[in-house]
Amino acid sequence: MIQIGDLVSTLMNGFLVGSMYALLGVSLTLSINGAKMYNWAHGELATVGAYVIAVLTTFHGVNPLAAVLFAMLASAGLALVVDESTYKPLVKRGANAIQIMLASIAVSIFVRYAVFIYAAAAFILTLKANVVTSTLTTFLGVQISSLYLWIIPSSLLTVFVLRTLLARTMVGKQIRAMSDNPELARVSGIDVTMLRRYVWLIVGAIAGLAGAFWAMYSFITPEIGFNLLVDAFAAAIVGGLTIDGTVIAGFIIGLAENIGAYLLNQTLGVPTQYKVLITFSILIAVLIIRPSGLTSRRSREL
Amino acid sequence: MEKTKSPSSTTRAIVFIIIGLLIGSGIGYVTAVSTRASSSSSSKLVTYTIGLASDLSGGGESFGTETVTSAQIAVTQINGYLAAAGSNVRFALSSPTDTLTTTDGAVSAITTLASAGDDIILCHCWSGQLSAVESYANTNKLVVVSVSSTSNLLAVPKGYLFRMIAPDSFQGKALTTLLWGDGIKNVAVIYRNDAYGQGISGVFQTEFTALGGKVTLEAYDPTLSDFASEVATLASNVQTLGVGKQTAVLFIGFATEAVNIFGHATSYNALTGVRWFSSEGPKGSTILPPTVPASIGQFEVQTNITGTFPQSITNNSIATAYIALFKAQTGNYPQSYGEQAYDSVYLLANSILAVGSENSTAVKNILPTMASHMYGASGPLLLDSNGDKASQDYAIWTIVNNQGTYSFKNIGGWAAATGEIIYNQ
Q1: What is the pLDDT of residues A181-220, one digit of tens each?
Q2: Which of B339, B406, B403 lies closest to B376 in space, CA to CA?
């Protein structure tokens, strides 16, 4: 039987989870457009960010805000290192898209198991960031946490800052130009090598932020990023590989997974364990009805 | 003349070569056999190795570590007895192979051990993992003794596979007796959707409804990252059943999922307002502060979470000695499956000694007979016709907060012989 309080709770959770899908999806979209590759190690950037904030706040008493910054820095650094050490050399040697994608799968596995080894040795295979939250209000028997007020606006603010950076700054305009036509950007005098580094730093920082938020919201494991990658890809594809579209799609998926699963269970008795099907149903439906995504990418637009 | 002589000398040469190869093979075989039977020719010790596969990472890590420690305690003891008796036989455990708490990990671990020549294996395998290795083990004649697989779905003859723990029908009955005895009439069950969760929840539902109780079942996919919508659904199920002293939640899963579900449950008054019960799955330090936030520890104490776990509850000198050794070695009391691992090593060692070799088929054939004459830390080791332990007691645990330090506490037990709960004084 549907309980209004529980329904509101799933709605709030839908927005919360959707905002994190949106963040991860936006950074994925940026890497697909900016670096021209489907990075399967993207989830691991979030995993690293999640573990950094969880370890710093739980075991070292670091202020959560400072820990978030450390998480973003760590993930940004990892993204840059992986590109410089793996992807860029492959591109220089003329590797095609499939070869680079396969390399990213290998990187994903490598990083995931590196975190696995560390977490197992430190007995922190399951961990949550030690961030003190309060109950804002209790609505029909459900406590509404202050976390909602932190994560959802912060995610939207991050996307706004990214949009402003891409639209208003010289670097942003150059990234858009490179995203549109890398060769033309290069012959126009844009330092695409340096620009690519900026892209990876931004991608890593945002993915790390998404991971950090997830560690504040729920428990993490070394597989957390890989598990979230499916939703991030779904958000990016459904959103048409644009920033605005990915944000909208992220919220749609987050809400659909939560509210959809709850309503289907309480009205039709569909087990909640099948909620992943909702994500893929949306993905398939959008690809059939509107293959370009909810908002298709026009020229010089990210 | 030379044309006819040449082929006959060639034939003779081939015959000599074949005879030479046969003699060489014979010598090689004899040498190999004598080498295998005597790993240390100078001391003439014969060492038999028992393969060890266990969850050393993932949700079953704490159980898997306990299995390894307990098996090592047993081997050390056995070797001590053998040395004191002047025997030239010794036992060894292979280096523990991680089953990762996954089915793929279990298959990989068993394959690795088999490749290394270990045909007799002790495994901390859950039911899903044991199912996954069943075909490979039987095809390759590997004796695999699981200390933690309990699903009723596997309560069938399994060839070379044995379970040193009784099926879930026992734990389902123990939980039913526990909840019903505490005055619970309505239960919202949330369980991991695998052989383990399906097994216990299925038995519990049958037993509890037979007594006149009401049960709602909710399965979750344990591979997901978050269970927010599952917990919201659970809260609605509890409200439908009616929040109060006669309603409870029964959690059947592992620690990794438990902390996530408990974490979300703290937000729902419906879920903090009823008692919680659990199988042995989450019992481990990973669900206690400081590993988890204090709010979850408070939730566990507030809801008086109470669970069952397989352990002998009779006064048993073998169990007492084992527990003392375990505590001396680790500083902690064994949580779950340690007794089973300890007993399994003794059973395998006795079977190998009876056979006089590591012949897995011979060990498989003698193992049930040996078990029927043995009594271990977990009680009588008698196996049923499916190769599963024929009986199992369950201890009852809860969580207490002693001035900010959270720990497990045994408060009683369910005796398989009588089907009754006995609370500690």
Answers
A1: 888 888 888 898 999 999 999 999 999 999 999 999 999 9
A2: B339
Computed over every residue of chain A, the mean pLDDT equals 91
DSSP string, A94-158: T--HHHHHHHHHHHHHHHHHHHHHHHHHTT-SSB-------EEEEETTEEEETHHHHHHHHHHHH
Neighbours of B9 (CB within 10 A): 9
Structurally, at CATH architecture level, domain B169-312+393-423 sits in: 3-Layer(aba) Sandwich (3.40)
∠ CA A97-A102-A106, nearest 5°, is 145
Whether residue A103 lies inside any domain: the answer is: yes
Cβ-based contacts under 8 A for chains A and B: 122
- Are A279 and A250 within 8 A, CB to CB? no
Domain ranges in chain B are 9-165+337-380, 169-312+393-423
Gyration radius (Cα) of chain B, Å: 26
Domain-located, residue A300: no
Domains B9-165+337-380 and B169-312+393-423 share a fold: yes
Q: Which residues of B touch A6 (CB under 8 A)?
A: 232-233, 235-236, 239, 268
- Amino acid making up residue A252: I
* Residue of B229, B254, B260, B330 to mutate for A, most A C-beta atoms under 10 A: B229
To probe the interface with B, which of A6, A57, A148 has the most B CB atoms within 10 Å?
Answer: A6
Minimum Cα–Cα distance from B192: chain A residue: A273
Rounded to 5°, the CA angle B397-B258-A265 comes to 120
Cα–Cα separations (whole angstroms), residue A122 to A117, A118, B298 = 9, 6, 25
Give which of A1, A2, A3, A255 to mutate to test B binding, by max B Cβ within 10 Å: A3
The CATH topology of domain B9-165+337-380 is Rossmann fold (3.40.50)
Q: Is B269 buried (19+), middle (13-18) or exposed (0-12) by CB count in 10 A?
A: middle
CB contact under 8 A, B228 and A258: yes
Mean predicted confidence (pLDDT) in B133-158: 93
Nearest Cβ partner for A141 among B266, B268, B293: B268
The minimum CA-CA distance between A8 and chain B, rounded to whole Å, is: 10
- Helices marked H in chain A: 4-34, 42-59, 64-82, 88-92, 97-121, 147-168, 170-180, 182-187, 192-217, 224-238, 243-255, 261-263, 275-289
**Residues B137-151: b if buried by 16+ CB within 10 A, e if exposed:** beeeebbbbbbbbbb
Where does B80-213 show beta strands of DSSP type E?
89-93, 97-98, 120-123, 143-146, 161-163, 186-192
- From B233, B235, B259, residue closest to A219, measured CB to CB: B259
- In this structure, is residue A298 part of a structural domain? no
Query: Based on the structure, what is the number of domains in chain A?
Result: 1
CB B232 within 8 A of CB B238: no
Closest CA to B389 of B398, B380, B402: B380
Asked if the C-beta of A94 comes within 8 angstroms of chain B's C-beta atoms, the answer is no
Q: What are phi and psi of B304, to 5 degrees?
A: 50, 45
Chain B residues within 8 A of A217 when measuring between CB atoms: 226
Residue keyed to tokens 């006819």: B4
Contact of A104 with A87, CB cutoff 8 Å? yes
Q: What is the pLDDT of residues B354-400, one digit of tens each?
A: 999 999 999 999 999 999 999 999 989 999 999 999 999 999 999 99
Check residue A183 and give left, alpha or beta (phi > 0: left; psi -120 to 50: alpha): alpha
Per-residue burial over A84-118, b = 16 or more CB atoms within 10 Å of its CB, e = otherwise: eebbbebbeeebeeeebeebbeebbeebbeebbee
What is the predicted pLDDT for the residue at B8? Answer: 57
Write out the residue range of the structural domain in which residue A49 sits: 4-289
Render pLDDT for A74-91 as a digit per residue (tens, 0 to 9).
999 999 999 999 999 999
